[in-house]
Amino acid sequence: xxxxxxxxxxxxxxxxxxxxxxxxxxxxxxxxxxxxxxxxxxxxxxxxxxxxxxxxxxxxxxxxxxxxxxxxxxxxxxxxxxxxxxxxxxxxxxxxxxxxxxxxxxxxxxxxxxxxxxxxxxxxxxxxxxxxxxxxxxxxxxxxxxxxxxxxxxxxxxxxxxxxxxxxxxxxxxxxxxxxxxxxxxxxxxxxxxxxxxxxxxxxxxxxxxxxxxxxxxxxxxxxxxxxxxxxxxxxxxxxxxxxxxxxxxxxxxxxxxxxxxxxxxxxxxxxxxxxxxxxxxxxxxxxxxxxxxxxxxxxxxxxxxxxxxxxxxxxxxxxxxxxxxxxxxxxxxxxxxxxxxxxxxxxxxxxxxxxxxxxxxxxxxxxxxxxxxxxxxxxxxxxxxxxxxxxxxxxxxxxxxx
Length: 403
Fold this sequence. Notes:
This protein is of the alpha+beta class. Helix content is 52%, strand content 19%. Strands 1, 3, 4, 5, 6, 7, 8, 9, 11 and 12 form a 10-stranded mixed β-sheet that branches. A two-stranded antiparallel ribbon has the order 2-10. The two termini are 23 Å apart.
């Protein structure tokens, strides 16, 4: 251990001189760094968790990539497309693709007694992946579309069930506005809730075969394809590959292209986290500068003694930089333990609630990333140590001894 580190440890950790002002100041500085780091850890964990939860809900409803007819039809009445078996298998064989499924949508009106409610029926086939909705079912079960015939089972949202006074097992009539108008009697087999009011208030899920019959489509036709990827980071390259594989009258769109306003809103959350981190680092740095100045004022005699013994300015600066390092390091360790501990408690117990109607989720979500934590700690340590260089230079002013 170098003499600079030894002296710095004595200044920070020694219990001698309890009446000195620097003792409580060092504790306050450590507490300040600890609180700042804990707040930064929680800010990153909450922003990452929030973005992840919202993104997963969007993808659960709409998949990473949708293939549909390349036209100007922005209504809920999807135009039929035909994907050949070879195209289907080629897309599914892409290394980025996790799952592929057919779907179609059609607008209609639910009627029960005198209550009417406009909805969009999303037809799904036997290749549909129910994993997302199984985690969001509040009652009942999912259904399996039939290879022959058409299932009359539907899954409605909790919001729709409340408005229409529906329970699992109830029957309801849905009218489809077309020429000629048609109606179907459907049975509720499940009720879901995702917290996305825009979707929950609008969509119900039915057998794709029902929509094929209503639209007079052939068995191989559907409204489009939904494609799920293994990794969100491969979204753009995978979309480019799929676009090259489909016919020229078809279009492949990513979830970011379909809902750009939501992803722009999520990107704004990063700015909030950056602002919090910058403010916490500045506050911690100013706190450390004040602490180091107090220590310097109390150690004027010690500095003069060392310089009279031939200590160089550089070695004296190193002493006080090591003092700052020990204070910041202890604050980082305790701050990480506190921040990660609170984040883990929130992740498992959800003790901090949110207004689901405003934030699409009923609790504050958190997501801890090892890489983000490492970068945060290294950046905080580097920034605070850098801010310590100026006050440490003041140690040179205690005496005029040459280097």
